[in-house]
Amino acid sequence: MVEDEEDLVDALRVGLARAGYAVDVAYDAPSAHEKLQVNTYDLVLLDLNLPGGDGFQLCRTVRAAGQGVRIIMVTARDRLDDRVRGLDEGADDYLVKPFAFPELLARVRALLRRESGGTSVLEVGGLRIDTARLEVSLDGRALALTPKEYGVLHYLMTRPGHVVSSEELLEHVWDEHADPFTNTVRVTVGNLRRKLQEDGLIETVISRGYRLKEPT
């Protein structure tokens, strides 16, 4: 999230975390540029009026660098020419303040669905995630997951059969304050396995990470 209004940042970060998203924050254009160079993000919420630069320039720089991260411009600038320019500069969506939080969440989900072929439902074997309703089930049995357990399972389900490292999970499911030397990923995966009650569904690949078993 690239936004200099601290009250808005605090409110959005809480709401997004409850919806299962990990959020890093930059309060000005230079720090946003630095974070985007260091980290691989799934989506950016980008204000236009920023200390040290503007959102249009930042968006243009990101696209010129070939970064495919999805971008939603979130701004009070509601003029038609600003909306047109934002989309022309490379934004995937443009949302005018003030806005309803459920609409922001719906737009975030819509962009992230592109990773799963445009559907809000992911299914791998008997596992099913409805990203719109935040509902998870296995063979018809509803599962109650914590936000981090949900985030780990969702990330693995978008990459069935692929080995995902602990570092990759930490980067995409936790925020920038997560300790890279912690065992939180291992603990979360262990808790997730117990809730799935399905041995071998999430496989450990020694020294490499975890893999969601593809149905045979």
Automatic annotation (TrEMBL):
It comes from the Bacteria. The modification 4-aspartylphosphate is found at residue 47. GO terms for biological process: regulation of DNA-templated transcription. Residues 119-214 form the OmpR/PhoB-type domain. It holds the Pfam family Response_reg. GO terms for molecular function: phosphorelay response regulator activity; transcription cis-regulatory region binding. Residues 1-112 form the Response regulatory domain. This is Response regulator transcription factor.
